[in-house]
Amino acid sequence: MSRTPMPPQLPNGSFPASAAKSLGLSPKQLRREGIVTLSRGLRLPLHSTGTVAEHLRGYTELDPECCLSHGSAARIHGMSLSKELEADWRIHLARASENWKPRRRNVVGHQLTFKPGEVMMLDGVRLTSPARTWLDLAHVMSIDDIIAAGDSIVVEHGENHPRPRQALATVDELKAMVKAHPGMRGVRKARLALDLVRVGADSPQETQMRLILLHAGLPEPTLNHVIFNEWGAPAVWPDAAYLTERVALQYDGRHHGEAEQYRRDIRRQALTERLGWREVRVHHDDLLGPRPEVVAKVRRALWVGRELAANARKIGF
């Protein structure tokens, strides 16, 4: 005898078992192999293709006093995390401090004190705001990782950029969050990191590149600079730039080895140089080791840029 087919309206993510009837699931169907028990009273269709938010939504639907926090909230917001936190897929749930700590399988429970606006709804999930999530994570990350996380929150690009972006929060909002919680764990590190959070870094590797150059004593490059063509139209968007020396830095991630991306990179470099700039292409390996190669690459390019500028002044250009 064939099984009763599953209802077509099954959520593409987690859901409370108490919602089974409204979803058209019988108690027998709820116990089928195709539905996984994540935790007490919480289910997930085995072949769910939902987003991180959809997979975690059931946790906050199950308990309206809880919100997702720390690494779980960071993943939904799309924030940069340290390597250690990226490898930790436990669920982080928080309740207000006057209530008891959440306790569930594979859940890290937290008791937190929230101020107005620090808990929000996003894609049907209750979670800590980007600025509050950043501050909660500060005590378990290094200064450089806190800076990268901050960069990933404040990054934005205007409409003339190939990939326009809106910031999750502003630098001023991060500063206000630090000021609002003076005694919180990690607040000292967060305060130090704020001095180096910048708008314009699209990846933690771009932040790492900038910090390596600063640690080596090189000047800080400008982010979000646009190189215009002869007709005054935006033409090239360097990941970072030295304006006086006319040096454009481009971080080439692992996907830049793909044939089509490689061809685009070559065309971009040719255009950059035709417009009077030198392009320095930085690869993943250039950021590694005690003496990262990116420092030598940029130092050489800056020296050449300064020599060219000095010669141009001598002959009256």
Automatic annotation (TrEMBL):
InterPro entries per UniProt: Restrct_endonuc-II-like
SUPFAM superfamilies, alphabetized: Restriction endonuclease-like (SSF52980)
Disordered as annotated region, ranges: 1-20
Positions with biased composition (Pro residues): 1-10
Domain of life per record: Bacteria
Xref: Gene3D superfamilies: VSR Endonuclease (3.40.960.10)
Descriptive protein name: DUF559 domain-containing protein
